[in-house]
Fold these 2 entries.
Entry 1:
Amino acid sequence: MIFDVDGTIADTERDGHRVAFNLAFEKLGMPDRWDVDSYGELLAVPGGRARLRQYLGGRGMGVNELDDVVPRLHELKNRFFVDLIRRGRIEARPGIVRLVDELQVSQITVGVATTGSRHWVEELLEVLLGAARVGRFGAVVTGEEASAHKPDPELHLTALDRLSCRPEAVVAVEDSALGLRSAKAAGLACLVVRNSYTAGQDFTDADLVVDELGEADHPAMVVADPHGLAVDGPVDLAVLRRLLAAGPGVPPST
Ligand code: XBP
Ligand code: MG
């Protein structure tokens, strides 16, 4: 299993990264503030630095100033974001802790592939999932370790390599069309957990789409089930095994 972070393990963007970006703008005395809707548009650009660069360049900031301001803003943003994490302002999405436990109890390899920065990714995972679970992850691949971001498959391919897993044996969990495209380009089956920012995106190629994974006391909120898995409970290991068996991934090598 390879988990995406932002939007998947936690709903980090609207009330997390966006708030931290605005605190960084304020700290540097800049007039910019990203409201919920405009940040949703900006999420089309993966990577916080690239997002800043595209936005500030788009409003006329010159290359020299961008080279100076963008790294400072991003560093500040990550510090503010870690502060939000430590103050408990970010929570794991429903079903994530349950599913990680189930996978790890069954000795299933679990990894992470995210565009996000290592500076905050490890802190977020430890605070949301606990050091014991994170310590059992086979790999945590972050944005700095790839020259290309999602939808390029490099992050997923790096995670596959670190986990020593064959693509046809792995399910990726993603929240966005960018993440889905990266997982598919890496030859993985993909479960999509939509969120408020990504609900309207194109998930035609996903192997299962839900709005929520569900918990023991309530079923997953299924949006699209192209393989006819007929999920009537939470998304659990049994569902994932059936998804893999039915998924259009690379045919299992003999
Ligand atoms: C989502 C991203 C990240 C975050 C911000 O990554 O594109 O850039 O928005 O984090 P994923 P950084 O869904 O792959 O986890 O500012 O650290 O990039
Ligand atoms: Mg994501």
Entry 2:
Amino acid sequence: MSDCIFCKINQNQISASKIAENEFVYVIKDINPKAPIHYLIIPKKHIENLSHFEDFDSQVASAIILMSRDLSKKLKEPQDFKLIFNNGYSAGQRVFHSHAHFLAGKQMEE
Ligand code: AMP
């Protein structure tokens, strides 16, 4: 989508350093981190949020999960992390291009 910030980052129209990527997803640091490590795992395909995933987007969905696993392997011990989707405005979503928040690096039991 032409006016989508995460599409623009993916197409290098807005600069952001990608810390990992593959065919389906890319990863950047969140500009406003809520934890010592706060990454965003972002599908390259523009999908508004989880409610808009189609059955044929299953490879994208699994790529998000597997990327979180790969990112956790690069953490210092412990390799624990949270993976959060804000799905819809009233759930806190403000960028309407699906993404997972990968949070790590402090006690997060709550
Ligand atoms: P959400 O509220 O779930 O839609 O999360 C959107 C996230 O995107 C927020 O945590 C923002 O801090 C983050 N964000 C917005 N613009 C950028 C950007 N240019 N680079 C990195 N993170 C961004």
